Amino acid sequence: MLEMLKRIYRTLPTENVSGLEIFSVGTFNGDRYTEKDLDEMVQAFDKVGFEPPVKAGHQDGQEDPAKAKMLFGEPALGYISRIYRNGTKLLADIKGIPQKFADLIRAGAYRRVSAEIYWNYASDESSGVKFPRVLKAISFLGADIPALTNLKAIESLYEKNAEGLVYSYDNGKEFRVYDSEVGTPFTLVQFATADEPMPKENMYEVQSQGNQHCIVEKTSGKTMSCYADRPTADSKCSEMNGGTMPEVKPNSKEVKPQGDIEMDEKTFQAERDKIQAELSAKLETQKLEMEKQFAAKQAELETKLAEFSSAKEREKELSDALAAAAERVAKLEQQSQDAEIAGWVKDMKAQKKLIPAEEERVFSLLKSVRGMPKVVKYSQDGKDVEQTPEEAVKAWVEMRKPHELFKEFSKNENEPDGKQYASASDEITERTKAYMNENEGVDFKTAMTKVFTEDKKSGGDLKARYLKEQN
After folding, report:
1. Is residue 112 part of a domain?
2. pLDDT tens digits, one per residue of 63-75
C-alpha cells in the first residue's frame, strides 16, 4: 500500500499550463524580433532535440538545487512541451509545474516572464545546420530572488557586447536574455489584509452542456467531468477548487504587471509559509482520504476473493456430484443392458435353443460385443445381410432348432418336464427311477451314478446339493 501511495503522490504535486505568453514581436535590448523570427523559433523547436526548462530567475541550477527542492519539491520547475505564435505573441504550453510553484505564481510572487534565446544555434556542428533563433529557457522573475527583480540586476549576471547588449554562453553557444512585460495565464490579485481572507481564483467552473452540468477548466476550456444535477456538479467543482473559495469579482483589485514590482521579503516569506501550510494540510487530507478509499477497496477485493473461493468450492462439489451421478447412470445402464441380455437368454432357454451349459458363455459373449460399431456381413438365403456382432450372435442362436438332449439336460435345472423338487434327495430319487425305466436291467446305484455324471457334464450341481443335504 505504501508503494502505491508513493506512486500516486509523485504525480499529484504538478500542473500543466497551456497558452502562457512568453515573448512577442518588438525590440528588446536592441534586438529586433518580427513575426518571421517567432515562426523560425517555432519551426526550430521540434528539431533541436531538447525541451526548454522553466526556471525562477536566470541563474543556471537555480542557485542551489537543494534550496529549490526544499521550496518546490523538485529542482526542475517544469518544461516547455510546445510553442506557437498567435498574432504578435509567442505562446507556450508548459508541463510538470510543481503545484507549490504554481500557487506562488497565483499568489503574485512571480509577475514577469523572461526568455533566454540562443543565437545561431547548431545542435550538431558536423552537419553545418544552424538555427537563427532557438528558445533556451524561460524564467519567472519576482520577489523570491530579490537580486533578480529588475533588468539592471539581471544584466549583472551576464556580459555586454560592444553594442551594450546582454549575452552569455552555454557550452560555447551564445544566448541572449530578454525581460519582457508579457501576460501570464494567471490573474494576479493583491494579498488580503490579516483581517480578511485572501481571495483566490477558482480554476474550475460549472457550465451547462445540453442537459448535463459539466466541470470545465477555465484556462484551457477542457471538460473534466459531467453530472445530471447541478448541486452535485457544484459540490464536486468546489472540491476540485480546494474547498469553498470566493470567486474573484470584477471589482477585485487586480495588479497588472507594470515595470519591476518589488515585494517585501518578510511578507513574501509569510505568504509562502501560509501557502505551504495550506498545501500540506490539503495533501494530508487527500492522503487520509485515499488511504480510506484504498482500505475500502481492499476490503471489497477480499470479500470478492472469499466469494470466488466459495464459488470454486461449490463448483467442485457440483462437479463431484455430477461425476457420481454420471457413474450411477452408467451403472444403471449397464444393469439394464445385462437384464436385457439375461431376459433374452432365458427366452432362448425356454425355446430350448440354448442348453444350461451354454447360458453363461452366450451371456458373456453378448456383453462383450454390445455397442461394437463393426458390421458383420454374410449371405443368407441368397441375400447379403449386414448386422452388428450382437445382432449376428442373437440371429445365430434364434435360428437353432430345439436341442435333442434338452429334455435330459433340463433335468439338471431341477425342472424336468416342468416339475419342481422340494429337495435334492427327491430330485435324484425320481431321476434315478426314470433312468432305470428307460434302461432296463440297470440297478438303482448304477442309475444314480449315471444321473450324477450326466448332471455334472451339463454343468449341474445335483450331487453337491445331495451330499450337502445328507450331512
Report:
1. yes
2. 455 544 444 444 5
Buried b (16+ CB within 10 A) or exposed e, 329-358: eeeeeeeeeeeebeebbeebbeebbbbbeb
Q: Give CA–CA dist 415/407, Å, rounded.
A: 10
- Count: domains in the chain: 2
Locate all alpha helices (DSSP H) within 107-204, ordered by sequence. Answer: 151-155
Residue 171, in any domain of the structure:
yes
- Whether residue 118 is contained in a domain is answered as yes
For residue 452, the enclosing domain spans 407-471
Measured CA to CA, the distance from residue 105 to residue 57 in angstroms comes to 13
Q: Which of 141, 172, 196 is the last residue before a domain boundary?
A: 196
* Stated pTM of the model: 0.35
Residues of the chain scoring pLDDT < 50: 1-2, 5-6, 8-9, 59-63, 67-74, 143-158, 164, 166, 182-199, 243-262, 408-418
Residue finishing a domain among 196, 211, 238: 196
Please report which helix (H) or strand (E) contains residue 271, including its range.
helix 265-350
Nine cell digits for residue 462: 445335483
Q: SS3 for 78?
A: coil
**Grid coordinates representing 289?**
482520504
Q: What is the pLDDT of residues 397-445, one digit of tens each?
A: 888 888 655 554 444 444 444 467 888 888 899 889 988 888 888 899 9
Residue-wise pLDDT tens digits, 364-377? 988 888 878 778 78
Of 22, 35, 15, residue with least CA distance to 91: 22
> Using the 8-state DSSP alphabet, how is residue 197 labeled?
P
